[in-house]
Amino acid sequence: xxLGSCKKxxxxxxxxxxxxxxxxxxxxxxxxxxxxxxxxYWAEKNLGATNPEDxxxxxxxxxxxxxxTTTGGWPETPIWKTGKESGYDMQSYCGDSxxxxxxxxxxxxxxxxxxxxxxAATAKNAKWRTPTSADFIALAAGCVWIWTDDxxxxxxxxxxxxxxxxxxxxxxxxxxxxxxxxxxAKLDYSENGASxxxxxxxxxxxIFLPIAGLAFGTxxxxxxVYYMSSxxxxxxxxxxxxxxxxxxxxxxxxxxxxxxxxxxxITIRPVTE
Length: 273
Hints:
Helix content: under 10%
Distance between the termini: 32 Å
Number of helices: 3
Order of helices and strands: EEHHHEEEEEEEEEEEE
Strand order of the largest sheet: 7-6-5-3-4-8
Largest sheet: 6 strands, mixed
Strand content: 25-35%
């Protein structure tokens, strides 16, 4: 069937809402909002990660637990759950059937967004959810993205996403040495030669999105960078869903690979209102 084990990981203490910015413990106020205009808070680390620079666990779209038996990141030698021995591929995801929609699809047929029961972040904590593609677009348009090859001396590369210090800084990104500006019409940073954003240090309000790779079959491809959204891709057949995709010279908050992507193992950065 579509879904593997829905067994939750070992229970963690419920986060509180007593932190300074009003967000759940471990979540950051980056000054962006959801589609309804409510403040949207972003987790400090990926789902299943111990530290902000860690990749965390990998999930197929609509699955609430990894296909491997241990959690806390990609195992050195994965031990696959029963029925998931072929890893993150169509066989493990769909079984013997071709990729078709089921009588009870994991997403809302109106919004095309994962239902809470099929959201890995919500399964971990009812206050969390996987970002929609609109949430990723808001993150790209409302923050400052700066590439780093070495986040806080951890040796991990990725983007530091800062809360913008003023409206002029919103939607600016630094790819290597050049600055670009968000283009809402193209859903891309495409205005070359943007002015430099106000000076930032890693002590400023931010999250870090590490290069986490993606799981395909039984292998982890570390150079590919996709973060899961809960939104079904509406331009293609049901085998596709949207992702945040980035690398050193680009950020695409709403994209999809050129093959059915829902079966891939992808990392999740939870959000909450």
